[in-house]
Amino acid sequence: MYPKIDPYETGALKVSDIHTLYYELSGNKDGNPVVFVHGGPGGGTDAADRSFFNPEKYKIVLFDQRGAGKSTPSASLEDNTTWDLVKDIEKLREYLNIDKWHVFGGSWGSTLSLAYAQSHPDKVKSLVLRGIFTLRASELRFFYQDGASHLFPEAWDEYLAPIPEAERGDLILAYHAQLNSVDDQTRITAAKAWAKWEMSTSKLYVDPAHIAHADEDKFANAFARIENHYFVNNGFMRDGQLLEPQEIDKIRHIPTVVVQGRYDVVCPATTAYALKKVFPELTLHIVPDAGHSSREPGNAKYLVKATDGFANL
Q: Could you report the per-residue pLDDT of 54-76, keeping only the tens digit for each?
């Protein structure tokens, strides 16, 4: 990854009567524009996200999605859907007076990047995607109900802890009740447990510092509430919509690279493979020594290689 840099501009873009997005620009003011689409949903951006791009070649656009990071109001679920976020990305492009840009997203960021590209294919120069997630019921069931639990049983026990045994038949729904409780302590306890489950499973080599991020009240509250809101509502789309042939046909002309950790249990490789089967034009790198996190060396190597490859496109 490239060395740490600071933004040369930060700002706030009001996108609705309720929501205002934080955005920042870094790198080359006159460079090739690229937008970084963060995960979660609800995860927000981080300074290290700038480092996937050559700062001499790219005009790097980072923004926090509705309710996430520095966007306001924090953790708000109102008017917060996939299609609201797609519209927000387009509003940001227009606001910044960018004709076309490269789109980079991982995990939920890959979901939103695909949704945006399929909605505005003429505005996307390239797609660099990591840890493919298409919000199908089977993907949610694997991570939040029965699948990853077999690989991380000790972390799974902590995830189960806030939920009464009688309510464990649908854990996403059970968490929804607690994450929307009027009792602050119930809500925060559930949010931290939800966030800790994902942080505990995101890397091939478990990282205590990464897991500790789940103990931050503001982050956990936004991350857990917004993720769960999207998952209870099936991503506000048809099951498998992003993989449907008529949707893929809209983006076949867009140069696309997918980086997928072989041992990613948050967004397992089966989904990236399903995307490759319906979109054979893309380049798929299955990284043999990586899990879910974009910062793992194997994943980061291929992501930077991809952005370097598109820097002059």
A: 999 999 999 999 999 999 999 99
